Structures are given as C-alpha cells and as structure tokens.
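Annex B. Sample input.
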Amino acid sequence: MTEEVLRKGVEALQELNLDKILSIYSEDAVFEDIPANLLIDNKAELSLYFERLFTSPGAAFSDFRILESDEFAVIEWVWTAQQVGLDQQNKVRGVSVIELKEGKISRERIYYNLP
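Annex B, continued. Sample output.
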C-alpha cells in the first residue's frame, strides 16, 4: 500500500496533477512547509498550496528518491520553476518526511533550502 501511494504521489507531482495529489492525503492530513513556517490542516488550503506550486511558470518536479517503510517514508525531490520577473530558473532541492495511515498521507513535513 505504501509503495502505491508514493508512486501515485510522484506521478501527480511529475504531471502537476492537482486532483491526483490531493487524492493521496487523508481528509484530516497535516502538511507543514517548515522553511516557510506554514502549517496546513485542511484540504482547501492544501489545494491552494499545490495549485500555486503547479501553476508557477516552468514548474516541474524531478529527481525523486524514495525511502519507505510501512508507516513512514522519506522522499527527496527537486522542484524547478521560472523566477518571476527574471529570465532565470530556480532549482530547489528538498525532502518530504511522510507519515501514512490507512493508505493515505496523514502528515507531511517538507524541508528545503531556497537558492
């Protein structure tokens, strides 16, 4: 089950598919963007968060590396997007620490360094 959820999540990120990414989170999931000091505890806000990421000019996710167990996973990733107002791509390396419950993501914390 863990592998299936994580595979679907990676596909959703690669496709920038909002509905697919939201489908892998539980209704009461907690999402924390640690560097931004942001805590999201409802799907409406989570949807807005991913919508902003997915609609950034030149947005793309790549270079996934997954380490998993039955209830936890760590995913390394790279997010790339055009810097607004500049003709420059930003590349952000990060990691997601994920807790799974009943086949869905129940908690995710992301860590990254901005360029």
